[in-house]
């Protein structure tokens, strides 16, 4: 882990994070004069002179390109209305499903109450548009879904997927993390799925700490030993 | 002039013991508690979410909606629960005090709901409410220019004091009591000022100076609450 990463610090709105021309304002910050000022509450991080803030709480703000997990709330003539646990509902049009759907067979593809993995393709003032064309997108079948605070999602995934890959390896489960905080876990055995759930809650609880990726390896080691002991 | 004595033995510029905590309401998107001695306020923030009813939506910017209410057991004689003339006024005042610091242009057609409840009242409830609301909004991840700190300055006869309590509010000697709640940013910009009673312009200037001093102390308490909330190791 680099030194910069350890310098993460909690900042509050209005606080001056850095002074001088060499820094650039990133997400959650603003440049006033030659000072970088926080406009959100969260962890300030510096990377390649860019200062950004990782929020610690709050509701999910949809963004273009995000993969999300949503629930079908309604069926219209042209597509599905999907709830994302965000301020606005999203819409999945008929054309964005990678197969032929007859006009009266919409509920055979996705019915009300079904969960689906989708990608946000457009945010306009009329609403959010989704697609299920693409690898890993489509209906959620089997497994369990858990919810965490959306601001903790980056910690669950880790840098370039480091954290989520460890969990996948250790548990032999398929895990899909939606940016809106919903996580779909699918494994061969329910025990493995529950272990993943426990691991994710563990990370979410400790999301402020640094060096978590190493810690989670030890955590799995410990959990597995305990599991063996209880089986005996 | 001889040293002025306050009823509870505080110095004129001394506030009551302050306490602040964030994350007190797990169901809310952001929440906080703030207290001045026996005055306790909790604030919970929900949203940003779609404004309902639809005709109140503002396509230009987001809306802040505050709801101040004193719980029926907050004072020694039970007060009727529900909105009253006083609570509607304070709700509006709180909105005006907080709006200048919020950066909610990016949330068109949406609303941020702030619910402020007074658990225990011993004067300065609107100030405690605004302080709690500012913390809760920050905790909810709403973009803000800065926090705000609110304090009530009182004029008891001719003496200016910071953070009045109920006994001081009812002061009757000499010129009586004047209550001036002031809300300001850490830089000293005023977002809200109210005044009821009599005061000269010179005294008002002194009152604002006193509020700036007290505001700094309150800001430190708020800052500490936010910085420590996500770090249970320090507790």
> Secondary-structure element sequence of chain B?
EEEEHEHEEHEEH
- Report helical residue fraction of chain B: 25-40%
List the secondary-structure elements of chain A in sequence, H or E: HEEEEEEEEEEHEEEEHHEEHH
Percent in strands of chain B: 25-35%
> Overall pLDDT of chain B, averaged?
92
The appropriate CATH architecture of chain B is 2-Layer Sandwich
Biggest β-sheet of chain B: count, sense, barrel? Answer: 5 strands, mixed
CATH class of chain B: Alpha Beta
With strands numbered from the N-terminus, the spatial order across the biggest sheet of chain A is 8-9-10-12-11
Q: What would you report as the Rg of chain B, rounded to the nearest angstrom?
A: 18 Å
Provide an overview of this structure:
The complex is a heterodimer of chains A (232) and B (235). Chain A contains 6 helices and 16 strands. Chain A is of the alpha+beta class and 232 residues long. Chain A has 3 domains: 3-55, RNA polymerase II/Efflux pump adaptor protein, barrel-sandwich hybrid domain (OB fold (Dihydrolipoamide Acetyltransferase, E2P)); 67-139, OB fold (Dihydrolipoamide Acetyltransferase, E2P); 144-231, 2-Layer Sandwich (Ribosomal Protein S8, Chain: A, domain 1), CATH 3.30.1370. In chain A, the strands form 4 sheets. A 5-stranded mixed barrel of chain A has the order 8-9-10-12-11. In chain A, strands 1-6-7-3 form a 4-stranded mixed beta sheet, with no helix packed on it. Chain B has one domain (18-226): Ribosomal Protein S5, domain 2 (2-Layer Sandwich), CATH 3.30.230.70. In chain B, 26% of the residues lie in helices and 29% in strands. Chain B has helices spanning 85-98, 125-139, 166-169, 201-229, and strands at 18-22, 30-36, 39-50, 63-70, 110-120, 149-156, 159-162, 177-184, 190-193. In chain B, strands 1-2-3-5-4 form a 5-stranded mixed beta sheet. A 4-stranded antiparallel beta sheet of chain B has the order 7-6-8-9, with helices on both faces. In chain B, strand 8 and strand 9 form a beta hairpin. In chain B, helix 1 packs across helix 2 (125-139) and helix 2 packs parallel to helix 4. The termini of chain B are far apart. The model of chain B has no long low-confidence stretch (mean pLDDT 92).
